[in-house]
Amino acid sequence: MNIYPFLINEFYTKYKTNDTPLRIFFAPGRVNIIGEHIDYNGGPVMPAGISMGIYVIARLRSDNEIHLKSSLHKKEIILKTEDTFTFYNYDGWTNYPKGVFQFLKNAGYKIGGVDLLVYSDLPGGAGLSSSAAVELAFAYTMMQLFNSDKTMPLEKLAVLCQQVENKFVGVNCGIMDQFASAMAKKDHAIVLQCDTLAYEYIPMNLREYSLVIMNTNKQRSLAGSEFNKRREECELALQIINEAHQYKYLCDADLEDIDIIKDELIKKRAKHVISEKQRVLATKKYFEQGDLVKVGEQLNESHQSLKVDFEVSCIELDTIVDLAQNHPACIGSRMTGAGFGGCAIALVATHQYPNFKLEISEKYKLTTNLEPSFYKCAISDGAHEIKY
Ligand code: GLA
Predict the structure, then answer these.
(1) How large is the average pLDDT for residues 121-143?
(2) Angle at Cα 196 formed by Cα 190 and Cα 202, nearest 5°?
(3) Are 112 and 169 contained in the same domain?
């Protein structure tokens, strides 16, 4: 489906028509293939951009006002470019672009008068990084519109957006989501080493299989959830291990190092992180060897570790993953993202996908009373302008 006529139409229902041309910018959501709760522990992750994401439609103004509207939310706001932008709960979704604009200004970049409309085809709160995509879409828009003489490299823009999330919105996330939304590459996954931000692309050659996203439709919330608690538990694990070592990150440690941890819960957290790091490296190797069955095994093990050792899964995720793993068309499945609801992924034989979807849906509904959603979406490029 060509979405651009719809976006332009949406823009003109919200804003008056005039002759100034519209530009459309896009930043994708992401799935994480493997490497969960690893970014803030300094290890490798393997996310990929997806074809669902955030669109920003922009039209320059002749004054110094930024008008912010959304085709999904009622909240609208008018900002003056010279003002200092502050986080207010009642400003809802507009806090994300406000944070981005403020941090761009702090970094010496320009923002200017513009009418903006945001549209999303990404389910929110589903673990597909809608907030990172919103940040990147607005940051990229401002770069292209007002800083084309000195655009910031996309890696740096990702870091700036992570700072917005950490220091403006107040969510202590790692770098993975913003990096993926900025740097994703069509038909590739990114292997990102989160302590150095060194990265490489690996082809997602899935041959007769498809990457299926399964949304449990159990909403999750990251801010104020268990996420920050897990970060603290990981920091504690590192502190204890460092009684005998001098590691900078928990991912620098080996599995034998965790014997020193007496607290069983903290030990389990460390075990997940260190074993997950190893699974990312193994998955990369199996992708390179074209051994998708082995890739699938790593996904299954990752889920088990997230469920038992890191305890960030939930009944709905476990149910859908368990159903997928036991379906003959599927060679591997795991939850993706922070956990506590949201989405899981599965590698599914493409020709059996309709069957898979039907059977899993029915059984999942019976157990949870929730209707799941399935997306068989393409692997997409990172933030870019759309020439329509
Ligand atoms: C969320 C965070 C990421 C990462 C994942 C878990 O998506 O925003 O930084 O920590 O959870 O892997």
Answers:
(1) 94
(2) 15
(3) yes
Mean pLDDT of 66-93: 96
Are residues 164 and 210 part of one domain? no
Q: Which tokens hold the place of 322?
A: 């368990």
Residues 164 and 249 in one domain: no
Same domain, yes or no: 329 and 279: yes
Rounded to two decimals, what is the model's pTM? 0.97
pLDDT reading at 370 higher than 60: yes
Closest by CA position to 157, among listed 100, 81, 239: 100
177 has catalytic annotation: yes
Q: What is the pLDDT of residues 151-196, one digit of tens each?
A: 899 999 999 999 999 999 998 999 999 999 999 999 999 999 999 9
The domain of 223 spans 205-375
Residues 198 and 227 in one domain: no
> CA-to-CA distance for 171 and 251, rounded, in angstroms?
22
Measured in whole angstroms, how far is the alpha carbon of residue 266 from the centre of its chain? 26
Rounded to 5 degrees, φ, ψ at 307 are -75, -50
In the block, residue with structure tokens 């490296």: 281
Does the beta carbon of 37 sit less than 6 angstroms from any atom of ligand 1? yes
The answer on 212 and 179 residing in a single domain is no
272 lines ligand 1 (CB under 6 A): no
Determine the atom of ligand 1 nearest the C-alpha atom of 175: 9
The rounded Å distance from CA 315 to ligand 1 centre is: 20
pLDDT at 223: 45
On whether the CB atoms of residues 251 and 36 are closer than 8 A, the answer is no
β-sheet bridge partners, residue 26? 55, 384
Q: How many residues does the chain have?
A: 388
What would the pLDDT profile of 203-230 be if each residue is shown by its tens digit?
999 999 999 999 999 987 654 578 889 9
Backbone angles phi and psi of 382, in degrees to 5 = -75, -170
Residue nearest to atom 5 of ligand 1 (CA): 338
Cα atoms in the 13 Å half-sphere on the side-chain side of 115: 17
